[in-house]
Amino acid sequence: MFESFRDGAGEVLKRPDYLEDFGRFYGGDIRLLAKIERGQTFKEQGSPSWEAFARGDWPGALRLIEAERDSVAAYFQDAARRDLVFRRLRIVEFPVTPYLQWEMHSFRLRSQLGEEIRVLDAREITEWERDVPFPEVVVLGNAVMYAVIYDEELKGAGARRFTDSEEIATTLAEFASLYRAGEEFSEFFEREIAPLGPPAVL
To answer: Can you give the pTM of this predicted structure?
Structure first.
């Protein structure tokens, strides 16, 4: 599964080039933005909520997530006018990391406002991860897909870019299969995340 991404394949883009390239395709005629997220800890550049979380200010982190409600709502309203669907599969290991606990609260807002999110237990994919973990994948319609690259500090550093239509079609089919196997986000959140106390500082 996800064979297209193995062995460092794809055109490597540094972060500014990746963001520019992503924006160009996002602004085009696409109907689906699909994401698979596998890593359990990252550093979110430019996120005030994540920065509050990293300082140990959990109430502040949650307040800052909620403060984004209007802007996130506008983002998904614009997508709806374009008939653009956002679909995310989040792979989760247990016990959940502090980062993932924070991220799930951010996802809760997004799921309330239009993003279709499902969660998959990492133990469900062990047979496909015997050699390497799943990549962090972003697919924009049938036009382009990326394997996101992170640096040693776990900050976004760019992506490997793929435009072959057959590879994209295969990846979308694999994504759809895993997505169907995942659990609906709100059910996962209420059972696994809502009961947790404030997470430890990174």
So the answer is: 0.95
User: For all residues of the chain together, what is the average pLDDT?
Assistant: 96
Our CA angle for 120, 4, 10, nearest 5°, is: 115
Is a pLDDT exceeding 80 seen at residue 28?
A: yes
Calpha distance 172→197 (Å, rounded): 36
* Plot region of 10 (φ>0 → left; ψ -120 to 50 → alpha; else → beta): left
Contact call for residues 156 and 45 (beta carbons, < 8 A): yes
CA distance 70 to 80: 15
pLDDT, tens digit, for every residue of 43-56? Answer: 998 899 999 999 99
3-state secondary structure the chain: CCHHHHHHCCEEEEHHHHHHHHHHHHCCCCCEEEEEECCCCCCCCCCHHHHHHHHCCHHHHHHHHHHCHHHHHHHHHHHHHCCCEEEEEEEECCCCCHHHHHHHHHHHHHHHHCCEEEEEEHHHHHHHCCCCCCCCEEEECCCEEEEEEECCCCCEEEEEEECCHHHHHHHHHHHHHHHHHCEEHHHHHHHHHCCCCCCCCC
